[in-house]
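Bumping with the actual sequence this time:
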Amino acid sequence: TLSELAGVMNRESINHFAELIIRNVARHANPSGVGSMAMGNALLRDFLMLRVGGSPRDVFAADGSGLSTLDRTTARSLVQLLSYAHHAPWSREFHESLPVAGREETLRLRMRRTPAQGNLHAKTGSTNSVIALSGYVSARTGEILAFAFLYNGKDRWNARATIDAMGATLAGFAR
């Protein structure tokens, strides 16, 4: 099922799955039956505008994996998508597809012995010059917070430590 694919894709960060999923969606929407990234990008932007209420200018997907240097998104658009997903009928499956800080796959060694351990559920992303973490965390009061941390630059290791500290801070947050 799609939820099973998403679970493996998100927890183990299998970029090939992401590429195939967006191209398959594009193939079904394209009258010619071709799963092009141009169609996938158009569908993503339409979804952001029509369903999520975001700006299609805030996202450009050159590929489905997020590895292209041409890919662009804003933290705001990611948080808007996460908020939409949190209230969608498939919310539970989506939350369960995300690795858990200090416990699973790509977050197994991160944010241990902090309020984020066992609490923060998020997708990682990294290239030679980008590091990102987007997902959900329960604040100290139980409020679910959606977040997106994006860093572009050469100092990825310090950026990762800062992102992890921000995740732990959100887990300890109270209004």
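The tokens above came from a reply further down the thread. The helical segments are 2-12, 15-29, 37-52, 75-87, 91-97, 156-171.
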